[in-house]
Design brief:
The complex is a heterotrimer of chains A (about 325), B (about 350) and C (about 325).
Chain A lengths: L2 H29 L1 H23 L31 H37 L1 H16 L2 H27 L7 H17 L1 H15 L2 H8 L4 H38 L10 H10 L5 H29 L7
Chain B lengths: L16 E14 L2 E14 L3 E5 L6 H8 L7 E10 L2 E2 L5 H7 L4 E4 L13 H11 L5 H15 L4 H4 L9 H13 L5 E5 L7 H18 L2 E6 L2 H5 L4 E6 L2 E7 H6 L4 H8 L42 H4 L5 E3 L7 E3 L5 H7 L1
Parallel strand pairs in B: 3-8, 3-9, 6-7, 7-8
Antiparallel strand pairs in B: 1-2, 1-4, 4-5, 9-10, 10-12, 11-12
Helix pairs in contact in B: 3-4, 3-6, 4-6, 6-7
Chain C lengths: L1 H29 L3 H5 L13 H9 L6 H13 L13 H36 L4 H15 L2 H15 L18 H27 L2 H8 L4 H39 L4 H11 L2 H29 L12
Helix pairs in contact in C: 1-12, 5-6, 5-8, 5-10, 5-12, 6-8, 7-8, 7-10, 8-10, 9-10, 10-11, 10-12, 11-12
Classes of the chains: A mainly alpha (about 325), B alpha/beta (about 350), C mainly alpha (about 325).
Chain lengths: ~325, ~350, ~325
C-alpha cells in the first residue's frame, strides 16, 4: 500500500509544478556536486574560448625554432612543441576551436532533430515509420566511420564551391582553408549527431500527443503548427536540454577525433585533436606535448557528461520514491 | 481477552490467538515529509479465523501487513509496536528469522497476479520454490506438491500448466496459482491483499469460493484486505474497518452489519446497494470529501472533515477505540465520541 | 522463430543497402577521379581526361557507365566476395579486408567479454547500494571513462604504464588477444563502452527491484541472494543485451582510433590508410565490413530476445 505516499506525493508534485518547475530543477541541479563542478569547468572553458586569445602569453602560431620541444618552464608553462610554439597558448586557442565547433553542431543538429522528431511523432503513420527507421539507422552505425567517409568525399566539392565563390566575390574569406575545415567538420558532425534529438523529441511527442489537453486543443480547432509549437515543444525542452549538454561533449569529442585523424581542423590552427596527433609522434621523448591537450580534452568531455547527467536528474526526475 | 469458540459452520476451532498486533506505527519519509501511514494499529487473529480488513486505498491496511512481514519499501519505517506471532515478536526478528516465517508460516496473496509473478520464470518454478528454500522438499517433491496444489485451487491440467510462463495464464488462473503459491508450505496464516480487485466480477466470486473452500478444508487463518465491504460480508468472521492509518471500528461480521456505529462505517454501508438507507433512492450515496493529508501529525479525529455527526470534542482530541455493547461473540469496539446508534434511533 | 528472424533481416538489410548507397554516392561524386588516384605516382599528365590512355583505363574499368549501373555492379560483385582493387597498390580489397577484419573482430569480442564480465556486476553492485558511496563511485567512474576519448585514454595509459611506471612493454602491432601487448589496447577498448553496460544494468536492476514480483519472492521467504540472482537478474539481462548493439557500435568506432594509436593492422588502420591515400575502394570495403558487423550484432541481439524473454516466444494458451 504505497499508494498512500504516491497519492499525497502526486498532489504535492503538482502543486510544486505550478510554483515553478524550473526553479525546482535548478535547486536540484545545485545539490549535485559533480554537476556544479562541471558547470564551473565548462564556464571557465567558455571564458577562455571567448577571451583566450587576448590572454595568452604567446601567439599560438608564433614559431621559435630555437626553443623546439622544450619541457615545461617558467616562460612556457606547458613547454613548446616541435616548431617551438607555446603549448599553453595553443591549448587555450584549442578551447575556442572546440567550443565553436560544438556550439554550431549542437545548435544545428538540435534544430534538425527537433524538426524531424516532431514531424515524425505528430504525423505518425508511414512518414513516422520511415523517419524513425532512418534515425535508428543513423544511430546504430558508428558515427566516426560514416563521418570519415563524408569528410573525405565532401572536401573536394566544398572546396570547389568555395573557390568558385571566391572567383565570384573576390572575398578572401573563401580562400581560408581554416573556414573550409570548420564548415566541413560542422557539416559532417551534424550529419551524424542529429538523430538522438529526433529520438528524444519523438518520444516526448508520443507521450504528450494523447494527453487530454492536446486532444482538447485539437477539438478546439487549433492548427497542427500551433499545437506542436505551443503544447508539444515546451514539454520536450527538458529532455532536449539534457541531450544538448551530452551533445556538446560528444561533438567536442568527435571534432577532436576527426582532427586527430587529420580530416577535421588541420594544423596550424590548433585543435586538441590535432595536437594529440602531433604529440603522439614524440610521446616517449616529450610526453607533456601529448598529455596537455589530452588532459584538457578529457576534462572537458568528462565535465559535459557529468553536467548532462546532473541535468538529466534535475529535469527528468523519474524516480521520486516515497 | 476472552477465548471464545468460533462456530461458523466449519466445526469448532479453539480460539487460540495466532497473531496479536499492538500499537503498530509506521511512517514514510518522502522528500522531507513524514507520512503517518499507520498510527497505532492493534488487532488480533485466532487460529482458523478469518479477519476482513476494510478501508479505502491509502488507509494503511496493506502497510500494516507489510510492516509485520518486513516487506515495506526502503522509505518506510516501523517506529513502534509489537506483533506477536505465537510467541515471537515479528517486528524484532532479524532478516534471517523473518525469512523462515515468510512463506513458511505466513503466506501472502497479492493484488495484481500479473505483476506479482516473475515474467521470465515458469509458474511451476515460482509456486514450488518456497518449498525448496524452506527445506521442505527437494526439486522433484516440490513439483509433485505443485501439481497437488494446482488441483486444489482448480487449475486444470496441472502437469502441463506447470511449465507455462505467467503470460500464458489468464488473470483468474494466475490468481489461483498465486493462492497455490501462498499455500505451498501449509502456512497457519494467509494474508490476502485485495486478491480480487484486479479481476473481473465473475472471476472474483470464483476466487472467493476457492479461498473459502480451502480455508474450511485446511483450517488456516486468513486476513483478507479489501475496500469492498460486501465482499468480506460472506467470508469474514470479524471485520476491522480502517481509516487514515487507524482502526476505527471492529466487530464480528453480523454485529458490524447489524449495529454499524462509526460514521465512516455507516457511510461505507450506505454506499452499498443492498444497504441503501432509503429503498426509494435511485442513487447510491457516497461519502463526501477525500481522505486527510497524512503528512500532518494526527491530533484530531481523522474523519472529522467528512463527518456529519461531529461534535466539538472531535476537533481537539483523537478518539480512541472503546468497547460498546454488542451481540457478537467478540467485543465490538469503535473509535468515536458520538453514539451514532442513539442518534439513529432518535431520528 | 524463422519468421521472426526473417522479419528482423528485412528491417536491417535495406538499411545496410541504403547506407552503402549513400557512401558509394559520396565517394562517386566527391571522392575524386579514381584513374587519377590510381596513377598519381606516375606521370600524371598522361592520365588526364582526354588522353587516350586515360580513356582506355576508364573504359576498361567500366567507369563510363551510369552511376546506378556501377553501384549495382559493385553490390553484385561484393556479394560474390569481390570488393574490387585498391586504387593505390592494386591489390584485391577483399584480401586486405580478410587480413584485417579478424583482428578487429577479435578485439571487439574480447572487449565485449571484458565489458560483460566486469560491467554487469558493477552495475548490479551500484544498484544494490543505490545512492551509497559504492554506487556513486561506480557511476562516477563510468561517467568519467565515458567522457574520455579513446585516443586520449590510449596515450595517457601508455605514458603511465610504459613510460612512468615501466610496468608493460610499449604495445605495437597485434599478436593476438592473449598477449601482454594486448593488455593496454583491450583495456582502452573496453573502458569507454563499459559505461553503457554499467548504467543500463544499474537502472534495470533498480527497475526490477521495485517490481511486485520481487516483493512476492521476498514474501515467499526466499533468501535474499536467491531473490537477487534468480528473480532480479534474469529479467535484467534483456535490457543489458539490448545495449550490446550500441556497445558494438562504440567498439568499432573506438577501434578506428585505437588501431591507429597502437599500430594494430585492423579495419581502423585500413580506414586511416584509405583516408591518407584517398583510396575509396578500400574505404568502401571497410565501411561495408563495419556496417555488416553492426548489423550482425544487432541481429544477434534481436534473436537473443525471445530466448531471454518467454513472453516473446509464444502467446497466451488457455483461458478461464
Amino acid at each position: 500500500m504505497t499508494q498512500i505516499s504516491h497519492n499525497s506525493l502526486s498532489e504535492t508534485a503538482q502543486e510544486e509544478k505550478a510554483i515553478g518547475i524550473w526553479k525546482d530543477s535548478f535547486d536540484r541541479l545545485l545539490k549535485n556536486k559533480m554537476a556544479v563542478v562541471s558547470m564551473v569547468v565548462v564556464s571557465i572553458m567558455f571564458f577562455f574560448a571567448i577571451f583566450g586569445p587576448y590572454l595568452t602569453p604567446y601567439d599560438f602560431l608564433a614559431q621559435n625554432l630555437e626553443l623546439r620541444s622544450q619541457a615545461p618552464s617558467a616562460q612556457h608553462w606547458l613547454g613548446t612543441d616541435y616548431l617551438g610554439r607555446d603549448v599553453l597558448s595553443r591549448v587555450i586557442y584549442g578551447a575556442r576551436t572546440a567550443t565553436l565547433v560544438s556550439l554550431l553542431v549542437v545548435l544545428i543538429s538540435s534544430v534538425i532533430g527537433v524538426l524531424v522528431g516532431s514531424i515524425s511523432g505528430y504525423f505518425g503513420g508511414k512518414l513516422d515509420f520511415f523517419l524513425m527507421w532512418f534515425t535508428d539507422l543513423n544511430m546504430a552505425f558508428p558515427n566516426l566511420v560514416l563521418g570519415v567517409v563524408m569528410a573525405v568525399s565532401l572536401r573536394p566539392p566544398v572546396s570547389r564551391w568555395m573557390e568558385s565563390m571566391f572567383l565570384k566575390t573576390q572575398n578572401p574569406v573563401f580562400r581560408q582553408s581554416s573556414l573550409l575545415d570548420l564548415a566541413l567538420v560542422v557539416i559532417v558532425i551534424v550529419a551524424v549527431a542529429w538523430s538522438p534529438y529526433a529520438r528524444v523529441l519523438r518520444s516526448q511527442v508520443m507521450a504528450v500527443r494523447n494527453y487530454n489537453y492536446v486532444t482538447a486543443a485539437r477539438a478546439l480547432g487549433l492548427s497542427t503548427f500551433t499545437i506542436v509549437t505551443k503544447y508539444i515543444i515546451p514539454n520536450a525542452i527538458g529532455p532536449v536540454i539534457v541531450q544538448m549538454s551530452a551533445g556538446m561533449g560528444s561533438a567536442m569529442l568527435t571534432e577532436s577525433a576527426f582532427s586527430f585523424l587529420g580530416i577535421g581542423i588541420n594544423p596550424p590552427i590548433p585543435s586538441w585533436g590535432n595536437m594529440i596527433n602531433e604529440g603522439l609522434r614524440q610521446w616517449t621523448s616529450a610526453p607533456y606535448l601529448l598529455a596537455a591537450p589530452a588532459v584538457v580534452l578529457g576534462l572537458m568531455t568528462v565535465s559535459f557528461s557529468f553536467l548532462g547527467d546532473g541535468l538529466n536528474d534535475a529535469l527528468n526526475p523519474k524516480q521520486w520514491k516515497g | 481477552m476472552t477465548r471464545l469458540i468460533q462456530n461458523n459452520g466449519r466445526g469448532n476451532i479453539m480460539g487460540e490467538t495466532l497473531l496479536q498486533v499492538t500499537n503498530l506505527t509506521t511512517r514514510f519519509h518522502s522528500r522531507g515529509n513524514l507520512i503517518h501511514a499507520v498510527n497505532g494499529v492493534s488487532f488480533k487473529i485466532d487460529k482458523g479465523e478469518t479477519l476482513g480488513v476494510v478501508g479505502e486505498s491509502g488507509c494503511g491496511k496493506s502497510v500494516t501487513m507489510l510492516s509485520m512481514l518486513h516487506l515495506l519499501p526502503p522509505a518506510a519505517r516501523v517506529v513502534a509496536g509489537t506483533a506477536f506471532f505465537h510467541d515471537k515478536d515479528l517486528l524484532k526478528l532479524n532478516s534471517r528469522e523473518m525469512q523462515r516465517i515468510r512463506g513458511n508460516h505466513i503466506g501472502m496473496i497479492f493484488q495484481d497476479p500479473m505483476t506479482s509473478f516473475n515474467p521470465v520464470l515458469t509458474i511451476g518454478d515460482q509456486v514450488g520454490e518456497s518449498l525448496i528454500y524452506h527445506n521442505i522438499s527437494n526439486r522433484a517433491g516440490a513439483e509433485k506438491r505443485v501439481i497437488e496444489l494446482f488441483r486444489m485451487v482448480g487449475i486444470p491440467d496441472p502437469e502441463a500448466r506447470l511449465k507455462d510462463y505467467p503470460h500464458q495464464f489468464s488473470g483468474g488462473m494466475r490468481q489461483r496459482a498465486m493462492i497455490a503459491m501462498a499455500l505451498a508450505c501449509e502456512p497457519e496464516l494467509v494474508i490476502a491483499d485485495e486478491p480480487t480487485t484486479a479481476l473481473d466480477v465473475t472471476i472474483q466470486a470464483q476466487i472467493v469460493e476457492v479461498v473459502k473452500d480451502l480455508r474450511d478444508r485446511l483450517g488456516i487463518a486468513i486476513i483478507w484486505i479489501t475496500h469492498d465491504l460486501s465482499l468480506v460480508a460472506g467470508l469474514a468472521d470479524r471485520i476491522m474497518v480502517m481509516y487514515a492509518g487507524n482502526v476505527i471500528e471492529e466487530a464480528t461480521t453480523e454485529d458490524l452489519f447489524d449495529q454499524p456505529t462509526h460514521p465512516y462505517t455507516l457511510g461505507l454501508l450506505a454506499a452499498l446497494p443492498a444497504f441503501q438507507a432509503s429503498k426509494n433512492s435511485k442513487r447510491l450515496s457516497s461519502i463526501p470529501g477525500s481522505p486527510p493529508d497524512l503528512r500532518a501529525e494526527p491530533t484530531s479525529c481523522p474523519f472529522l472533515p467528512r463527518c456529519s455527526y461531529a461534535i466539538n470534542r472531535c476537533a481537539i482530541e483523537m478518539p480512541l477505540a472503546h468497547e460498546i455493547p454488542g451481540n457478537g461473540s467478540t467485543p465490538h469496539s469503535v473509535a468515536c465520541f458520538v453514539n451514532t446508534q442513539e442518534r439513529i434511533t432518535v431520528q | 522463430m524463422l519468421q521472426y528472424i526473417l522479419l528482423r533481416l528485412v528491417r536491417w538489410i535495406p538499411g545496410v543497402i541504403l547506407l552503402m548507397f549513400i557512401v558509394y554516392a559520396l565517394m562517386f561524386f566527391g571522392g575524386g577521379d579514381p584513374v587519377q588516384i590510381m596513377f598519381s605516382r606516375e606521370a600524371t599528365d598522361l592520365f588526364m581526361p582526354g588522353n587516350p590512355r586515360y580513356e582506355a583505363v576508364k573504359e576498361q574499368l567500366g567507369l563510363n557507365r551510369p552511376f546506378l549501373v556501377q553501384f549495382g555492379d559493385y553490390l553484385w560483385k561484393m556479394l560474390h566476395g569481390d570488393f574490387g582493387m585498391a586504387l593505390t597498390d592494386g591489390r584485391p580489397v577483399a584480401r586486405t579486408l580478410a587480413a584485417a577484419t579478424p583482428i578487429t573482430i577479435s578485439i571487439a569480442l574480447a572487449a565485449s567479454a571484458i565489458i560483460a564480465i566486469v560491467g554487469i556486476p558493477l552495475g548490479v553492485i551500484a544498484a544494490l547500494n543505490q545512492n551509497h558511496w559504492a554506487d556513486n563511485l561506480i557511476l562516477g567512474g563510468a561517467l568519467f571513462f565515458w567522457g574520455i576519448p579513446t585516443f586520449v585514454m590510449a596515450p595517457l595509459l601508455m605514458v603511465l604504464f610504459c613510460l612512468e611506471l615501466n610496468l608493460l612493454p610499449v604495445p605495437r602491432g597485434w599478436h593476438g588477444v592473449f598477449d601482454v601487448n594486448s593488455i593496454i589496447p583491450l583495456t582502452v577498448a573496453a573502458l569507454r563502452p563499459m559505461a553503457l553496460v554499467i548504467r543500463q544494468a544499474r537502472s534495470a536492476v533498480l527497475d526490477v527491484l521495485s517490481e511486485d514480483y520481487i516483493r512476492t519472492a521476498r514474501a515467499k521467504g526466499l533468501p535474499e541472494w536467491v531473490t537477487i540472482i534468480k528473480h532480479a537478474l534474469r529479467p535484467v539481462l534483456t535490457p543489458v543485451v539490448t545495449q550490446m548493439g550500441v556497445v558494438m557500435t562504440n567498439l568499432l568506432a573506438g577501434s578506428l582510433l585505437l588501431e591507429i594509436v597502437f599500430g594494430i593492422p585492423g579495419i581502423g588502420k585500413l580506414i586511416r590508410d584509405g583516408i591518407l591515400n584517398n583510396d575509396y575502394s578500400v574505404l568502401l570495403g571497410c565501411t561495408f565490413v563495419v556496417l555488416a558487423l553492426v548489423t550482425l550484432t544487432n541481429l544477434l541481439v534481436d534473436i537473443t530476445y525471445p530466448i531471454l524473454d518467454p513472453r516473446l516466444r509464444s502467446t497466451q494458451k488457455g483461458a478461464e
